[in-house]
Amino acid sequence: GAGVSQTPSNKVTEKGKYVELRCDPISGHTALYWYRQSLGQGPEFLIYFQGTGAADDSGLPNDRFFAVRPEGSVSTLKIQRTERGDSAVYLCASSLVGEDGELFFGEGSRLTVL
Amino acid sequence: AQKVTQAQTEISVVEKEDVTLDCVYETRDTTYYLFWYKQPPSGELVFLIRRNSFDEQNEISGRYSWNFQKSTSSFNFTITASQVVDSAVYFCALSEAFSGNTPLVFGKGTRLSVIA
């Protein structure tokens, strides 16, 4: 597809379980971002990749959160030992290098931790 | 510290009315970008505009216009002759550098409802 694709669109899990959320960016976009959006709030930055490496992971809330982008395209956000407070919509965005802030977002993955 | 404040949580207008969405920002940097994004019910944020801190000229794009005033640290967004399709949550955002793709700091958003 032409846009940023995120799967699953919805994920319900139990507290303590492990989850993976996938992001397929727009072809040719080397910059990839993960944001988290709680109800009634704006998106909060989690991590930014430039190619395969995490250029900025300062937004990850703790060591239960981890993200990879092994081939510089698809990225996976991994959350270990999920907690109810992790419930949110996880948004992925991609952009071209140099187009600062002009991000193309996916529709998000809604995570619900019971 | 960087912060974006959108004081209006929700606004309702009747179709064809003009509406202004307010945005106030805080930053210690002298070089920064300001943005507006639209989030329709589908959830996918859509980029509307980027403005750099050196350019205070107002911008107009169709029914949309933006007013950037550094003196009041504001970057307000006006929709003229609103339409039902404008109904969405609108986010103002800030990034603090020109070099590299630095993360955006978003406000909490303003939900706009345009009633037919």
Can you walk through the features of this model?
- The complex is a heterodimer of chains A (114) and B (116).
- Helix content of chain A is 0%, strand content 48%.
- Chain A is built from no helices and eleven strands.
- Chain A has strands at 5-7, 10-13, 19-24, 31-37, 44-50, 53-56, 65-68, 75-79, 88-95, 104-105, 109-113.
- In chain A, a hairpin with an 8-residue loop joins strand 9 and strand 10.
- Chain A has 114 residues and is mainly beta.
- With 116 residues, chain B is mostly beta strands.
- In chain B, 32% of the residues are buried.
- Classes of the chains: A mainly beta (114), B mainly beta (116).
What secondary-structure arrangement, pairings included, does this model have?
The complex is a heterodimer of chains A (114) and B (116).
Chain A: E1 5-7, E2 10-13, E3 19-24, E4 31-37, E5 44-50, E6 53-56, E7 65-68, E8 75-79, E9 88-95, E10 104-105, E11 109-113
Parallel strand pairs in A: 2-11
Antiparallel strand pairs in A: 1-3, 3-8, 4-5, 4-9, 5-6, 7-8, 9-10, 9-11
Chain B: E1 3-5, E2 10-14, E3 19-21, E4 24-26, E5 33-39, E6 46-52, E7 59-61, E8 64-69, E9 74-79, E10 88-95, E11 105-106, E12 110-115
Parallel strand pairs in B: 2-12
Antiparallel strand pairs in B: 1-4, 3-9, 5-6, 5-10, 7-8, 8-9, 10-11, 10-12
Q: Mean pLDDT of chain A, rounded to whole units?
A: 94
User: Which two chains touch over the largest interface?
Assistant: A-B, 29 and 24 residues
Oligomer class: heterodimer
Tell me, briefly, the overall form of chain A: globular
Distance between the termini of chain B: 41 Å
Roughly how much helix do the residues of chain A carry, as a percent range?
Answer: under 10%
Radius of gyration of chain B: 14 Å
* Number of E strands of chain A: 11
In whole angstroms, how far apart are the ends of chain A? 32 Å
Radius of gyration of chain A: 13 Å
The residue fraction in helices of chain B comes out at under 10%
Could you tell me the mean pLDDT of chain B? 93
Q: Report the total helices of chain A.
A: 0
Largest β-sheet summary of chain B:
6 strands, mixed
Total beta-strand segments of chain B: 12
Low-confidence stretches of chain B: none
Helix and strand succession of chain B? EEEEEEEEEEEE
C-alpha geometry of chain B: globular
Instruction: Please report which band the strand proportion of chain A falls in: under 5%, 5-15%, 15-25%, 25-35%, 35-45% or over 45%.
Output: over 45%
Give the DSSP E fraction of chain B (strand runs of 2 or more residues). over 45%
Structural class of chain B: mainly beta
